[in-house]
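Annotated sample (chain length 275).
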Amino acid sequence: MTPTALPRGVTAPNRTWPLYRACSGIALDLGSARTRAWVSVRGTILDVPTVAFPGDGDVHPIQRGTIVDTPATARMLDRLLRHRLPRFGRRLIVLTTPVLGGVAFRTEARSALETLGPHTVLTVPSARAVATAAGADPTRPLLVVDIGAHVTEAVLLVDGSVTDARRTLLGTSDLDSRTPATRIADAVTEMVTLMVEQDRTAQTLDALRRGVLLAGGGALRADITHGLSTRLRHPVQPVPAPHTAAVRGAAALLDSARIHPSTGACGPPSPRRPH
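Output written by the structure step:
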């Protein structure tokens, strides 16, 4: 549970955050196996198991990309983050969400986040957060593959928006002597192939030819990346520190959102209006 600094080469969010005592910010990535958070007043990434501890046992409140126990998720977030936040002030949270998690994931996540007393909660697809962390050009089609512990997603982004997405409930935690890494490479290849075949435009193929952005813990495994590039016959580019790419991208988006007028949550305190 040791906080880690942002990796070399990754731009940290604006360091004027602590000057704005009226607002604190949290970037959050709720994974099935790991929960990662960036807190503005700390400036480091927290990386802990996604586990709650009620009584004498432990509970895994998020399974296969689905929040199955909202109260336990709330307890976990309260234990992890409340003591790290200023006691007073408005709180802006940018939360990454699985692209195919749907309304259900966002609803349950927002309910769990109420324990932190947020002023504003913004959600962003994990693939977009990954692309932001990688510094990818959003004006061109991007193909992002996120290989997590329990879920793998393949997502096409066009102008920063999701236009196609596929997922398989298979991740690195499923690999063992009887389930080789080729299973994941085969599953991703099948998803990407279907995306190309069903795309009536050339956007998916264009993104594939430019190279797949690979994120998640699976991007750290050479057997997966090599197998994937061999099967796709196109470049596969792991993003820097791929296991924390989503939360780092969320932190960058958080830094932009804090001064955007649409959030109504952050920026320099407004002058007090006369009565």
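Annotation: The chain is about 30% helix and 25% strand.
Annotation: The radius of gyration is 19 Å.
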